[in-house]
Amino acid sequence: MAPPEPKLDEAAGALVAAGARFVVIGGFAVIANRFVRATEDVDFLVPDDPGNDRRVLAALRGLGAVRLRDEAPLLDEHLLGQPHLRAITRAGIIDILRGGLPPLDFDTVAADAMTADYGDVEFPIAGLRSIVGFKRLADRPRDRNDLIGLAEIHGELPDDPIPGLDT
Amino acid sequence: MPFRFNTLLEPGHEAEWAQLGAEKRRALTPAPDTPVGELLRRGQSLSAQAAGLLRAVERGGGSTRA
User: Fold this and answer.
1) Which of A71, A77, A103, A113 has its CA 20 to 30 A from that of B60?
2) Beta-carbon contacts below 8 Å between A and B
3) How far A58 CA lies from chain B's nearest CA (Å)?
4) Across the beta sheet with A114-117, what order do the strands follow?
5) How many whole angstroms from its chain centre is CA A100?
6) pTM of the predicted model, to two decimals?
7) What is the DSSP string of B16-64?
8) How deeply is A110 buried, as exposed, middle or buried, from its count of CB atoms within 10 A (0-12, 13-18, 19+)?
């Protein structure tokens, strides 16, 4: 199945409507922090909360989601207790990720988040401090390029210690 | 000790991330015979979304909540 193009407002709106807690991370969060570059999926950080997972799953099912790996209909066990779920939906490919250790845990990222206000829906999107942390941790070529782009826009970037990386 | 699920957002999961990256590239790489018009339409749509997101963040206050 060829994935539809990502639709951030539709994907996030579905999670908001389902009452799920989340923060947008990944490429759309990079764009929100003013480094405009292409992105072709939607990434959500979610808390370690089985009840929230069920609300996320309900939202994804409402978007017609199947698991990308095998196009299987979404089951609870695809997300509950799992570190990651990748689904293909009518709002594009959606990655669901668990937070890491502070400062990349859900609560810290949520506290640092900005608000995206689309008029009919508002949702949190990761702030610069969190995005820099995620990018430093991932350290793939695209992540390093994002850090260069963000530094050109914002100047010296936040440099919070990342457990296991700096400590 | 707070309850925690496993996470990939910590050092030591490079192999999993490489596998996930390859899976995503396979899913997103357009077929070689994709018409240029379709590629352009998709690119324009993504650009419009980026512009809409920047406007939405500005409406939301444009800074972190903390």
Assistant:
1) A103
2) 126
3) 20
4) A66-67, A84-89, A92-98, A41-46, A23-25, A122-125, A114-117
5) 13
6) 0.95
7) HHHHHHHHHHHHHSPPTT--HHHHHHHHHHHHHHHHHHHHHHHHTTSS-
8) buried
Specify the DSSP element, H or E, that contains A114: strand A114-117
* A2 pLDDT more than 80: no
Domains of chain A, by residue range, sit at 8-154
Say how far apart CA B29 and CA A128 lie, in whole Å.
29
Which of A48, A69, A113 lies at the smallest CB-CB distance from B3?
A48
Digit-coded pLDDT (tens) for A48-101? 999 999 999 999 999 999 999 999 999 999 999 899 999 999 999 999 999 999
**Topology (CATH) of A8-154:** Beta Polymerase; domain 2 (3.30.460)
Q: Are A133 and B40 in contact (CB under 8 A)?
A: no
ipTM: 0.93
Percentage of chain A with pLDDT > 70?
99
Q: What is the spatial distance between Cα A82 and Cα B37, in angstroms, rounded to a whole number?
A: 39
Find tokens 């999961």 and name the residue.
Answer: B13
CA B12 to chain centre: 22
Residue B34 distance to chain A (closest CA, Å):
12
Residue environment code for A68-105, b if the CB has 16+ CB neighbours within 10 A, otherwise e: beeeeebeeebbeeebbbbbbbebbbbbbbbbbbebbb
Quick: pLDDT tens for B18-58: 999 999 999 999 999 999 999 999 999 999 999 999 999 99
